[in-house]
Design brief:
This protein is mainly beta and 240 residues long. The chain contains three helices and 14 strands. 14% of the residues lie in helices and 42% in strands. Strands 1, 2, 3, 4, 5, 6, 7, 8, 9, 10, 11, 12, 13 and 14 form a 14-stranded antiparallel β-sheet that branches. Helix 2 crosses helix 3. It is globular and about 50 Å long. The model has no long low-confidence stretch (mean pLDDT 96).
Length: 240
Amino acid sequence: MAPDLLARAVKAHDPLGRFSSVRALRAEVRVGGNILAFRFRSPSARRVTVHVDARRPRLLMTGFPQPGWCGEMAGDVVRIRDDAGRVVGERHHARSVASSRVKWDALDEMHFLGYALWNYALTPFFFTWPGFHTEELPAQDGLQRLRVRFPSGIPTHSAEQVFHFNERNLLVRLDYTAEVFGSRWRGAHFCGEHRELGGFLVPTHRKVLPKLGGRVLPFPAAMEGWVESLGEAEELPAER
């Protein structure tokens, strides 16, 4: 029997079969987007270093919200430390707080960027974890499609998302609702410029365009990001 779409996608993005032994990843990224301006945060792209826990929802972002500082997303908790390592901000129930506020602070932005980048780094690998439910959908516009329902303990854009893969089984698009901004914020997230980095084949350019009904609007870009490097890293230090 031929492998299913998820198995093919995992193989395509991890041709050496290394991910199962990886405990953390380190990446240099640039990220920004117009949607942040709707919460009174700068839409300008900023360069940050992220350390991604490959086993649970946790991410460290150095250089955020300013050089020398570090943001942390740990499930539904976010923290910011200064250049001396002191906690200068901490928030529990970060999702509900960010979802209810019109004007975000740095902790709200850290929650959004933290869970989003963690999701992107682990797609499609964490779809094999317990609690995820996947279903192959009919192909559309020449692309294979996988509907994914996320378990409740995974911070993500929306509980149900649709992922599109090309003929090489590489991720080229995902559709979701950015619920932290509200139920109307539906986006088509395009992935391209795939490169081999650290033994993995990853999209190095991402752009999110708004959707109106079933139609993708050509502008403005809600978010845009670039991966400049990626590789296996040491396990993240324990929370403190």
